[in-house]
Amino acid sequence: MKIKSINPYTEEVNWVYDVLSFGDCEDQIKKSRATFSGWSSLSVEERTRYIARAAEVLRQSKRVYAEIITKEMGKPIRQALGEIDNCACLCDYYAENSAEFLKDEVVETEAEKSYVTFEPLGIILGIAPWDFPFWQAFRFAVPALTAGNVCLLKHASNVPMSALEVEKVFTEAGLPENVFKTLLIDSKTAMEIVDEDLVDGVSITGSQVAGSEIGELAGRLVKPFVLELGGSDPFIVLEDADIDRASQFAIESRFLNAGQSCIAAKRFIVVEDVVVDFIEAFELHIQELKIGDPMDEETDIGPVAKKECVNILEKILKDAKRKGAEPHVYGEEHAKGFFFRPALIPAASEDMKACNFEVFGPIAPVIIAKDEDEAVEIANSTEFGFGAEIWSADLERAERLAKRIRAGFVTINGMVKSDPRLPFGGVKKSGIGRELSYYGLKQFVNIKTVVVNK
């Protein structure tokens, strides 16, 4: 079996790779298991030196890695460069803070001494998507490695070049062999690895269906898991918001990476008093975007990652039209490449797929709300609960509303984006567990209590 890396802009094949068999994976897992003892016995300070070196490697070859991302999944080069910067900052953060985060916690009890220690679990399998091919892999791997685990990466089948380059970063940083390995495998084999009880934990960023299957397998085997499954994030605009600023952030939050992000704003819930002004400002700014060659430094929106994505987006827009919408579509048609022109759906209804489905592409539905109470009700109406944005000049009011939003991450007058310093994850069907920050570092450790008596 083969997998292809295809350039979404040219539609040409970048490279073809052989897929590993289950037997190949078993051999690698044995090697990873043998390596775990030595890696986990290092001090946190020793392990973080490797992580710090990984940051250096990323910065030294930033342009090379960014161009691989762009050639493989169509992300505009300017955004791809930013992705590599973020990965390096992630490494810096854990290199600088992990020793403090993982130190023993003393608890006063009647005993001579009581404390909590944090020990690695073993082999952690990471299943990553293609939208941020380096960031998603590093976000999973760096905390797990720092905690003393060894890692296996099963990346999305359309980004094998990125998957292998991620492994090379850690190799060039000097990590011992088999501490981090990329497995070019299909989803069936990844499921088999979990089902055969070959790993000690699983982290998946992906679809709700895939996450549910992994959660079921891991739960049956009593393995810890983290599920990051995307969302349908609300972007609430109240009547006292700075409309021009809100519309600019709306453009960035919806159309960054051609709208392919689990935490992109996906539903614009605008109170009726300002909806006309918001749509006018939104349309003005959307026409300023440059759509085209993702290798052009000036490009804002490139192609989506796969031909199948175009087909799904077309169906979502057709569904909106069948339900009474009159979408506004921007930009010119492209004869080649997996392009989907940005679309705005004014006065969208909640029964449209554009409003209750995780739309991975540049479609922006606007839902009109009577007031803030209805806006919150609409925001909470989907099965997802990842991120949310609230726009208001009254910060106390906005914070009150933030407490009513069922989401893992709420930003007021700004854009939801992952930050190594802040926990990242959702509620409801957006996922289980947290990545990043102090909390993400503790997802794949044994939180062990030790009590000492005379």
Automatic annotation (TrEMBL):
Keyword vocabulary terms for this entry: NAD, NADP, Oxidoreductase
Binding partners and assembly: Homotetramer.
Gene3D superfamilies noted in UniProt: Aldehyde Dehydrogenase, Chain A, domain 1 (3.40.605.10), Aldehyde Dehydrogenase, Chain A, domain 2 (3.40.309.10)
Protein name (record): NAD-dependent succinate-semialdehyde dehydrogenase
A Pfam short name: Aldedh
CDD domains in the cross-refs: ALDH_SSADH1_GabD1 (cd07100)
Domain of life of the organism encoding this protein: Archaea
Aldehyde dehydrogenase domain ranges (all copies): 2-450
MF (Gene Ontology): aldehyde dehydrogenase [NAD(P)+] activity; succinate-semialdehyde dehydrogenase (NAD+) activity
Family that this chain belongs to: Belongs to the aldehyde dehydrogenase family.
